[in-house]
Amino acid sequence: MLFVNPRLREERVETQRVNSSSAPDNDEAMFPPTTGAASNTSLFASVLQACSAEAAAAPPAAATTAPATAATAATAGAPAQPPGISALISAIQNGSLTDTDVTDSTQLSVTTPWGNYTVSSFYYASDDTANQLATLLGGKVVQLPPFGQGGGCTEPLANFIQLPNGQTVNAASLAYYAQGAGCGTGQLAADLTQTINEGAALTNYYQNGGPMPMFPIGYTGPAISGMTYPPGTIAADGTVINPAMGNNNT
Does the reported pTM lie above 0.85? Predict the structure, then answer.
């Protein structure tokens, strides 16, 4: 089951809204209200329920149990996993990864030629969540505008994770998977890799311009360089296997 990430998908739409050169038809059309994240709750719940049912029906694979074993050993006092996708998956599966957003509305104010608005916290991971993600992935937290600046708008900075290889992705997009343990190790490896590869391409677009990057359905892309992965999740060509697409991950 593909774990749909509305944060990553809606970044493209939000970029066009924030950078619009004309006034929106109404405030909510341009900037979702802080309660706007609730609109994704039913989608998230239905996908999570399906993932959990799928995980319960399928026998556990070796790749699924390996990260959990490593996480259990770390809890018992054994050496912790090295930073990487495996460590992040373990944190998701053992419930230690938190997904919290910025709650201070003064940190979510957007200035536009038509007035000030409060943007949804859906795209703004808290400092605690961002720092946890950076530790798990061996990166660092940097602050960037989540949709780029344009159209006379000034938006608040969001927490991003900059990986050792330079790829930089919105922390909120990664934190979204905190409740995705039911999707299984293989699918999490694919979805996290997709989020990093696509998110980093979008970040580069926001910072440097050019055509907006687009990706085919089911795209995961290459394994993130320098990251540890669970066994059996990387194909012979170096791309990450996407179970939801029948291993069609190009």
Answer: no
